[in-house]
Specification:
The protein has 283 residues and is of the alpha+beta class. It is built from 12 helices and 5 strands.
Length: 283
């Protein structure tokens, strides 16, 4: 198994308890949630490492100019610091690395996926007092500054390039073939951001069957979020079977079938068939 390696069970249980508590708090802390995801992925990230990552975000915020002006001035100031001066950016190869979805690694490597680089932009700018938030464009996460009527978008994956309206339209069209809709520009809340990060981790693991361990913890953290698709339970059950826990997976499949039966009896029957096949693997 290639690194990063997961933490031992006792550490994992504590991280998940904290993740669930933070996700259900009145104002979930995005950086704390991302670092707990990182610690679940990387057993080498201890409490000192988590604290060091938070200190680094504070340090970077202290390098920004004091109240540079309106939304565009903020976008330019953050780009000049993080993109131009410090070299935070992304490249196609970053999609092939699990580290690109882990905040502590992105802070060290200054490379990552669009959404993790956006987390760095948001957390640094927020600490400096900027009116900043994430914008979950389809297929490409970016950062917004200012209220709706003055909104300025920046693309951290491209070093913080300030986007025109046409640029945003091209990003959406390139990712989905759809037209940019005003609803796509609304601020994303922290739990939406974390859910999307975990979706990215699951997609990374799905392309690498030998890393079903990563897929499993990403699903299990997603299930700790206050709102999640019921189908994640089915995904978890299939992963348990894939990893050799035939009884556990069969029990999860049967429980999911009970949920599905109320809306789709045929689908519930197919899931029960999968549960029977999983139990048969014990013979």
């Amino acid at each position: 198994m290639r690194p990063p390696y997961p933490p031992p069970p006792e550490r994992s249980a504590e991280l998940r308890r904290r993740f669930a508590a933070e996700a259900r708090s009145e104002r979930p802390d995005l950086s704390a949630l991302c670092l707990l995801v990182g610690a679940e992925a990387d057993g080498a990230l201890d409490e000192a490492g988590i604290d060091a990552a938070q200190v680094e975000l504070d340090r970077l915020a202290g390098l920004l100019p004091y109240r540079p002006g309106g939304p565009r001035a903020w976008a330019v100031a953050v780009r000049e610091l993080l993109g131009d001066r410090l070299g935070f950016h992304g490249a196609p190869a970053d999609y092939q690395r699990l580290e690109s979805s882990l905040l502590h690694e992105v802070l060290k490597r200054r490379r990552g996926l669009p959404i993790l680089l956006s987390v760095v932009w948001m957390e640094v700018a927020r600490r400096a007092g900027a009116p900043v938030y994430g914008v979950a464009l389809p297929g490409h996460f970016v950062v917004g500054f200012g209220p709706e009527e003055e909104q300025v978008l920046a693309d951290p994956f491209d070093g913080g390039r300030v986007l025109s309206g046409t640029d945003a339209e091209v990003l959406v069209a390139g990712a989905t073939g759809a037209r940019l809709d005003a609803a796509m520009l609304r601020p994303a809340d922290p739990l939406e951001v974390v859910s999307r990060i975990l979706n990215n981790v699951r997609a990374w693991a799905a392309a690498r069957p030998e890393r079903s361990d990563v897929a499993l913890w990403a699903v299990e953290l997603s299930l700790l979020l206050p709102s999640h698709p019921a189908r994640l339970r089915y995904e978890r059950a299939r992963l348990l079977v894939q990893r050799g826990d035939f009884l556990g997976g069969a029990s999860e499949l049967e429980a999911y079938a009970e949920v599905v039966e109320a809306v789709d009896e045929a689908a519930a029957g197919r899931v029960r068939g999968e549960a029977s096949a999983a139990r048969a693997m014990l013979n």
